[in-house]
Design a protein that fits this description.
Elements lengths: L1 H14 L4 H5 L5 H18 L3 H8 L3 H17 L4 H20 L1
Helix pairs in contact: 1-3, 3-5, 3-6, 4-5, 5-6
Length: 103
């Protein structure tokens, strides 16, 4: 999980102007929280990681990860035009495009 998760955290963090290490820090800000939530959601969607695995990787309790993933899903469902939802969609699409290009 670590190499894949590190790569995704760095890729998604860069979309917000952060490094992968910053996404994994315990520091809190709205943009870092969004980057972490999207990282958790993408790792769950693309790679099927469990909530406890994601919690361990992101340094959070698994219930915090469940909440973050649900927040991304709610944004995508209720406000797909929001910047947060668009960023999540782009993060997932870029990851899928990267896989397709490698094949």
């Amino acid at each position: 999980m670590n190499a894949i998760a590190q790569s995704e955290a760095a890729r998604i963090g860069a979309m917000y102007g952060f490094t992968g290490d910053e996404v994994l820090e315990h520091r809190r800000s709205k943009s870092l929280d969004e980057a972490r939530a999207i990282t958790a959601w993408v790792l769950r969607q693309r790679f099927g990681f469990s909530y406890p695995e994601l919690g361990k990787f992101l340094g959070r309790d698994h219930t915090s990860i469940i909440s973050a993933v649900k927040r991304v899903e709610r944004e995508l469902r209720e406000r797909p035009e929001s910047l947060f939802a668009l960023t999540a969609s782009v993060a997932l699409a870029k990851g899928l495009a990267k896989v397709a290009a490698a094949e």
